[in-house]
Structure formats: C-alpha cells, structure tokens
Amino acid sequence: MPETVTTGWLDGVSDELDTMLAQADAELRQRFPGPGSDRQPVHTVYVPADQVTADLAPRWGQEALHTLEQYGERLDLEPELMGRVRIKLAEEPIEDLRVDFEDGYGVRNDETEDVAVHAAVHALAEAAEQKTTPPFVGIRFKSFEAPTRRRGVRTLGLFLAGLLESGRGLAGVVVTLPKVTSVEQVEAMVRCCDELEGRLDLPAGAIGFEIQVETPQCIVGPDGTALVARMLHAAEGRCTGLHYGTYDYSASCGIAAGYQSMEHPVADHAKAVMQVAAAGTAVRLSDGSTNLLPVGDAEQVVAAWETHRRLVRRSLERGFYQGWDLHPAQLPTRFAATFGFYRDGLAATADRLRRYVERTSSGVLDEPATARALADFLARGLDCRALDGGEVGRATGLDLDGIWEMARPTR
Question: What gap in Å lies between CA 280 and CA 283, rounded to an integer?
C-alpha cells in the first residue's frame, strides 16, 4: 500500500467487525472450548451390577494373565511389549469400570434392583479402602424411554447417594445415559442432574454424563439434522463423552446379526458423525465392543484375540482412543493393540515434534494443530503406560512438562 494512503480507517472497520462478531465469538468459546485436559481411559469395562465385587479389578487382571499364560505365545508379541502388557494386567487391568444396570443386568423387580444398587455401592467403597478401584468407575442406568425412566432415575439417585454416604465420594465417577433418542432426553438428564445436586448437597455441575449413541435417531433426526451435535450442546457442558453402541445401533439399522460389527459401514457412518459433532468440544469419543469373546479351546481364543486386536488397532487409527471390553480375556489384546499402537508410532512422532519445536527442516511441514496432535499422541501413550517418561524425553529431546502443556493446554 502506498505510504501516502492512510490506514486509520481500517481500525474503524475492525472495531465494527468486533462488535458484529462479539456474540459469535462468545458462543464459539463456550461451545468449542478445545480438547479436554485430563486423562481418557483406553477402555470401559461393562459388568452386570450383580457381578460387581470389591476384588473385581485384580480378579479380572489375574484371569487375563492366566489366559495370557496359556495362549500368549500365539500373539507373537515382542518381549518388551509382552512385558509391558503383563505389568499392566497386574497393576491396572481395568481403567474404567461401569456398573451396568441396563442391558447387562436386565429387568428385575424394584426390590431386587435396589438391593443390587446397595451391594454395588458397598463393593466400590470396599475396593476404595483396599486401593483396588480402577481410576474411573461409574454406572449405566436404564434409559429415559418411558417404560424404564422411573427405574433409571431411582437407580441413579440411590447409587450416587450411596457413594456419598459410604465416604467413597464421586471422584472419578462417570454416569452413562443409554439409548438416547431425542434432544429432550438430554435436556431431561440435565434437569435430573440439577435436582440430584441440590438434594445431595453437591456443587452445581458436579455430575457429568456420557451419551450412548445406540439409536439411529441419535445420529439423524426427523428433520434430517445430526441430533447428536444438538444433544451434546443441550447438555449445557455436562456431556463428557459419546459412546458408540455397536449392536443396538446395528440392529436398529436392520443389519443381520451375523454382520453386526464395529467396522460395518453403518457403524463407520455413525462414528464419523459423532467425531465431527464432538470436535473442539472436549467431549471424548469411545468406540463400541465386539461380542466375539476369547473363550473355549485354543483356536477359539486365538481367533477371538486376533479379531479384537485388529478392531482395537482400527479404532485407534481412526481417532477413537477408547472402546468397550466385556470379558477378562479381552484385556490382553486391548493392551497389546493399544501399547503396540503407541510404541510403533513413538520414534516418528517424537522426531516430528522435536523438529517442529526446534524449527528444523524436514520432509514434513507441520502446523500448530498437528504439533498438538503429536504431543497428544505421546501424552496418551504415557497415560496408559504404553510409554514411559524417560524414553519420551530421550526420543524428543524435550522437557516433559512442555509436551504435556502442548498436548493439553490450560484453558
């Protein structure tokens, strides 16, 4: 621009644009605050409520190790990776436990379910005393569909009140709302949380919840819009995750039982919509499960392992860093696939991040968003113990605190 041309008027235009976009700017900050800053578990283990015991996590770990002892050589893992999997199974076999009062538990009379709630609370409180509690625990109660709504609210209320009364508290507790079919159900869940917080003397916003995407209505509403996007914003900041439900969703779409899978095209479509809806919101994503369990003879166990390991790796490569596990024998392949994913990517990721920070020329031109993704990859590997701080520091040549800040910036 020629020096003789004044530019002061541009400041006036900018001021006008600031005024025009002030509301849009505020809404963007509120609705899309960026990725979350806390740890995300690599899986959620669903256990029927009447099977939850204080020793559940270490018992599952021992059962998983026993299966690994029997058939582990068939996994063909490198010794270092096998060693890490064994340590994980011995020390932290379950990262996220969900006490299931929904499909895994079934329909019981009110008295029976009340007893099961109290027993589950007692088991979790005892586990906390014994320091055998997984990092995350929670409840999946019955849905807000008309036939199960009252029972769901009752179970949720008794469970949360029981944890508070037991002294265990709600730290790390996750609440799962299943089979959501309308935005109104999410709004009702917000209202329910408000009421529970008031009655239980909890601070406002203390209760968050996950939405399980198990119905086609959750993905596409009658007006053709992606309802899952509207749902997570209708949660008023309480929605912490979107969990894909493989079999309910597939069946609702008319997929024959033999073809229902986490990798069916209808599953990939639903998860792609979930992924776009959650981008930039700090809402975490979880893939579903496979019902092909590693039980039976050696050939059946190994075949199920191969399927599970492949599906876990597939989910990770597609940006779904969490999934469901339903049986102790699935834990070896959950961690083998997860650890392998992060260890396979360590060298290249660390080198790219180091070059980005040092502004060293390379064959890849990374932008700030990609640098954050590189750091987040390493942070996730550290969270689940696939990687350790020493090797990450050596590989990147960077300070670990700097990596954490780059991966999960303080908002």
Answer: 8
The H or E element spanning position 22 is helix 8-31
Task: Name residues whose C-beta falls within 8 Å of residue 397's C-beta, 6 or more positions apart in sequence.
Answer: 354
Residues of the chain with CATH 3.20.20.60: 43-344
Alpha helices, DSSP H, located in 331-396: 331-358, 368-384, 389-396
Burial class for 6, CB neighbours closer than 10 Å (0-12, 13-18, 19+) = exposed
Question: Taking the model in full, what pTM does it have?
Answer: 0.92
Distance CA 407, CA 404 (A): 5
What burial class does residue 368 get, using C-beta atoms within 10 Å of its C-beta: 0-12 exposed, 13-18 middle, 19+ buried?
exposed
CATH 3.30.390.30 for domain 43-344 = no
Helix axes 183-199, 149-166, angle to 10 degrees: 30
- Token digits of residue 22: 């002030």
Please give the chain's pLDDT, 411 residues, in tens: 455 567 788 888 999 999 999 999 999 988 898 887 789 999 999 999 999 999 999 999 999 999 999 999 999 999 999 999 999 999 999 999 999 999 999 999 999 999 999 999 999 999 999 999 999 999 999 999 999 999 999 999 999 999 999 999 898 899 999 999 999 999 999 999 999 999 999 999 999 999 999 999 999 999 999 999 999 999 999 999 999 999 999 999 999 999 999 999 999 999 999 999 999 999 999 999 999 999 999 999 999 999 999 999 999 999 999 999 999 999 999 999 999 999 999 999 999 999 888 876 555 556 788 889 999 999 999 999 999 999 999 999 998 898 988 888 764
